[in-house]
Structure formats: structure tokens, C-alpha cells
Automatic annotation (TrEMBL):
Pathway: Isoprenoid biosynthesis; isopentenyl diphosphate biosynthesis via DXP pathway; isopentenyl diphosphate from 1-deoxy-D-xylulose 5-phosphate: step 5/6. Belongs to the IspG family. Its EC number is 1.17.7.3. The gene is ispG. [4Fe-4S] cluster binds at residues 310, 313, 356, 363. It comes from Mesorhizobium australicum. One of its GO terms (molecular function) is 4 iron, 4 sulfur cluster binding. This is 4-hydroxy-3-methylbut-2-en-1-yl diphosphate synthase (flavodoxin). It catalyses: (2E)-4-hydroxy-3-methylbut-2-enyl diphosphate + oxidized [flavodoxin] + H2O + 2 H(+) = 2-C-methyl-D-erythritol 2,4-cyclic diphosphate + reduced [flavodoxin].
Length: 428
């Protein structure tokens, strides 16, 4: 079996913009097909540890993860999956769980039917699903299980575990043609062909395209952009985006955002994960927050109210505005799980916390509610703007607490009223 699309020549122009993808239902969450980009995360607990995994899945979901992937690497973890699903539902967490399978996924799914049933999707890597003559057979066994249980599959290629037979063949072909492509370009082509070949094989076995999501992960920004542009041009599958092994802290955030921001702007990508390496003992939910902020700052989705705050300068030697902005942002994010149902539309709220008179009043007027705190040497007064108009001026030692109360009151009046009106219409 071969992929019809030719290897592009070196220096060839980039592909056309992404065409519409096929939609895939993952446990009630639609990926692709014109749906909003979905945020995904992954646990780093031992899945066999039911208590730890339930706690982390619940935390990721509360943070806003719409799909959560868990490792299923041995019998003990496979046996734990239905118990994890049951425990989560008992505490009201119905987030779809994705099983991450490598090497022996076919055996684990066959030996643990309750696991196969409890998962909303299977993720398999064609580079290590099996080797030599076992590869297609074991791949096929997983696809047949997915068909039996009506589950979608993500075929996730990773250049750290790429099919070496395919890569060797393409390298040999490239050499025979006089090296028209660089080694990196051939590697990217191998990644793409692995994904497309595997998807074609899955469809031949009987898994419909509406049950297939593709991913092609690398760890370098320019490679990720090149791979996904080509993959999007050569297929209409739903695509999962992620810069693998992105790294820790700001490096991982910047690299992931740079790569995925470009692709998302071109309409490429239907679900994303920010693969951050957490600090020792760090909060796993950070990757969810970054994914949400990427989509929100690009204007694709709204998850939490936006807090605009100035960076500070010599005019803002007081730290009051920084502390206030940090506290309000933390409170908004903390309250969102409840507010999403209590105050419909509250995620559209825009708050401004500014530190001096230069941009403070203007930025506050652009927000739904904003405060312009006094800068160094300015009159110790803080004007408040609501819906573009000056509504009050705060003075004294309790400015921060008073503004927080005004924000809470604004939310109740604006979004609580919206809920009451909606309830009245339903009752009518």
C-alpha cells in the first residue's frame, strides 16, 4: 500500500489553507467538523493508583480540560480504568477519558473489556504498536476493538518513536534520487506518511473516518509547523496539535504557543495539548491554563474573564495594582467552575486593573469594569469605570477590597440578570 501524494521537492511553496475537517465524537465532545478547538491534557499519575488518578483527572477537568488522557501500560492500569471512570462519575466528573497505549495495547484491550468500554477514545502510536510482521496484525486488533466498542482512535505519530523501516526506505529513496531533500525533510515526510498510511489501513479494516484523529508530533517549532501544514493539505482528518517534549516553564509555553499559534491562525488543529514538563511537585493543571489562554488570547474561544493590566514602569512604583490584578485574576479562575452555570456568559467579562493615569482611564473605559490606580506622585484617588463611563472614585486604604466587591456586584447584576431573563423565557 502506498500514499499517492508525492514527496514535495525542496523549496516547494507551502500548502493551501486548511479545508474543513471531519468531525469526531469523543464521549460527547466534538473534535473537528467545524467545532471549537478542544483543550486536552494528560495525567502523570500511575493509572493503577486509582485515588491519585481520580484526583488529578478531576483537577484537570475543573481547570477546564475537556478531554483527559491516561496511560494504560500494563494489566494493573487497564484493570483500574473502569474503577476510575466509576469514581469520577460518582463525584460528578464526566470528562471523556482517553487511553494511551504503546507496545501491548492490543493485548490489554482484549484482556480487559471493561477498560475498552470505559474509555472514550484510544490513542495508538504506529511506531510502536508492533514490530516487523506483528505490526499490522496488532494495529488491526486495536482497530477491530475500537469498531466493536464504537470508539474513536487517535493515530499519534511521534518522531521519537517513528517507524524505522519506513524512515529507512524513504532515506534510501532520497539518496537514490541524489538527495533532493534534507534529512530533516525526509523525516517529516516519514511522519506524515506513517499517519496517512495508518489511517488508510484503519479505514480499510472498517473504522470510519469520523472515528479517526491524526497527530504528528515533533519537538521543534519549525518542524511542527511544516509537518502539520503538509498533513492538513493531504488529508481532511481531524487533527490533534501538540509540540511534544516542549520543556519546562517559559520555554515550553513560548515554544508551544509559537508553533500552535501559527497553525491555529491558518485553521489547522481541532484539539490541542500543551505538553509542559511540570516543576518538581508542580501543578499539572498549568498545561490546561496555558492551552486556554492561547485559544483565548487568539480570539478563538472564551474560558475565563480577561484581566487587562499594565506592565508597570517608573510611574508605578507601588505594587498595589499588581497585587490587585493577580488576586482578581486568581479569583475569577477559581470561581469559573461555579460561575459557568450560575452566570451564563460571564467568561466574556473584561476587567482592567491599571497603575497610573497615562493609559489607566482609557484602558478602563474599554473594559466592562476597570480601575485606574494612582501612580507615583499622582493624586491618591482611583476612578472606576463601568461600561465605559466613570461610575465612582475610590480613596483610602481599602481601595483593593472595595473594587473587588464592585466586580462581584457587577457580575451579579449583569450576568445574574441574564440568567433570570433566560429562566423566565423558558418558563414562558
Amino acid at each position: 500500500m502506498t500514499i499517492a501524494a508525492p514527496i514535495p521537492a525542496a523549496g516547494q511553496a507551502g500548502p493551501a489553507p486548511r479545508r474543513a475537517t471531519v468531525g469526531v465524537d469523543v464521549g460527547g465532545v466534538t473534535v473537528g467538523g467545524g467545532a471549537a478547538v478542544v483543550v486536552q491534557s494528560m495525567t502523570n499519575t500511575d493509572t493503577a493508583d486509582v485515588d491519585a488518578t481520580v484526583a488529578q483527572v478531576a483537577a484537570l477537568h475543573r481547570a477546564g480540560s475537556e478531554l483527559v488522557r491516561i496511560t494504560v501500560d500494563r494489566d494493573e492500569s487497564a484493570a483500574a480504568v473502569p474503577r476510575i471512570r466509576e469514581r469520577l462519575e460518582r463525584v460528578g466528573v464526566f470528562v471523556p477519558l482517553i487511553g494511551d497505549f504503546h507496545y501491548i495495547g492490543h493485548k490489554l484491550l482484549a484482556d480487559h473489556p471493561a477498560c475498552a468500554e470505559a474509555l472514550a477514545k484510544y490513542r495508538i502510536n504506529p511506531g510502536n504498536v508492533g514490530f516487523k510482521e506483528k505490526k499490522d496484525r496488532q494495529f488491526g486488533a486495536i482497530i477491530e476493538t475500537a469498531i466493536r466498542y464504537d470508539k474513536p482512535v487517535r493515530i499519534g505519530v511521534n518522531w521519537g518513536s517513528l517507524d524505522q523501516e519506513l524512515l529507512t526506505r524513504l532515506m534510501d529513496d532520497n539518496q537514490a534520487n541524489g538527495f533532493p531533500m534534507t534529512a530533516d525533510a525526509v523525516t517529516r515526510e516519514a511522519i506524515i506518511q506513517s499517519a496517512l498510511f495508518s489511517a488508510e489501513l484503519a479505514e480499510e479494516i472498517g473504522l470510519p473516518r469520523s472515528k479517526i484523529i491524526l497527530s504528528a508530533k515533533v519537538s521543534r517549532v519549525q518542524d511542527l509547523i511544516a509537518v502539520y501544514r503538509d498533513l492538513a493539505e493531504r488529508s481532511n482528518h481531524a487533527l490533534h496539535l501538540g509540540l511534544t517534549e516542549a520543556g519546562m516553564g517559559t520555554k515550553g509555553i513560548v515554544a508551544s504557543s509559537a508553533a500552535m499559534g501559527i497553525l491555529l491562525q491558518q485553521g489547522i488543529g481541532d484539539t490541542i495539548r500543551i505538553s509542559l514538563t511540570p516543576e518538581p511537585g508542580g501543578d499539572r493543571t498549568r498545561e490546561v491554563q496555558v492551552a486556554q489562554e492561547l485559544l483565548q488570547t487568539m480570539g478563538f474561544r472564551q474560558f475565563v474573564p480577561i484581566v487587562a493590566a499594565c506592565p508597570g514602569c517608573g510611574r508605578t512604583t507601588s505594587t498595589v495594582f499588581q497585587e490587585l490584578a493577580e488576586k482578581i485574576q486568581a479569583d475569577l479562575r477559581k470561581n469559573m467552575p461555579v460561575w459557568k452555570t450560575k452566570y451564563p456568559g460571564v467568561e466574556e467579562l473584561k476587567v482592567a486593573v491599571m497603575g497610573c493615569i497615562v493609559n489607566g482611564p482609557g484602558e478602563s473605559k474599554h473594559a466592562d469594569i476597570g480601575i485606574s490606580l494612582p501612580g507615583t506622585g499622582e493624586t491618591p484617588a482611583a476612578p472606576i469605570y463601568i461600561d465605559g463611563k466613570k461610575a465612582a472614585t475610590l480613596r483610602g486604604a481599602n481601595i483593593a477590597a472595595e473594587f473587588e466587591a464592585m466586580v462581584a456586584s457587577y457580575i451579579e447584576q449583569r450576568f445574574g440578570q441574564a440568567r433570570s431573563e433566560a429562566a423566565e423565557r423558558i418558563g414562558a
